Description:
This protein has one domain (3-153): Beta-Lactamase, CATH 3.30.450. 36% of the residues lie in helices and 28% in strands. It has helices at residues 3-48, 102-111, and strands spanning 62-63, 66-67, 69-72, 77-79, 114-122, 129-141, 144-153. The strands form two sheets. The protein has a five-stranded antiparallel beta sheet with strand order 4-3-7-6-5, with helices on both faces. The longest helix has 46 residues, at 3-48.
Amino acid sequence: xxxxxxxxxxxxxxxxxxxxxxxxxxxxxxxxxxxxxxxxxxxxxxxxxxxxxxxxxxxxxxxxxxxxxxxxxxxxxxxxxxxxxxxxxxxxxxxxxxxxxxxxxxxxxxxxxxxxxxxxxxxxxxxxxxxxxxxxxxxxxxxxxxxxxxxxxx
Length: 154
């Protein structure tokens, strides 16, 4: 390998490492944004219960295609800002584009307290699935337990 070829290989590797590092940095910032949004919604629900649900439809709780949703732990979706007609539906058997049981995983994650679920879902207006990462957290108000979630496309 000539010196020029060696330098080209080093340059290509450096660009790849920089792109990966930048992608990871952006993903970590998105995770922090989503987790903060969910944590704030959990506090709102802990203090106001179901009367907080209409507030979660407002633009304050949205950032592009990032929004907060709420389900009861029996799988019934009670807050779904992109399409309010989807509220009241049982989401327990929801699967991603490749059959991953994300409805059950969301519920299981909430039962464990909180966590991240990765899956593939089409972006709004698209049919091809993209990787999506969603943060789920359990919240209780009175005798009802909910899961609060929000996610972003990678």
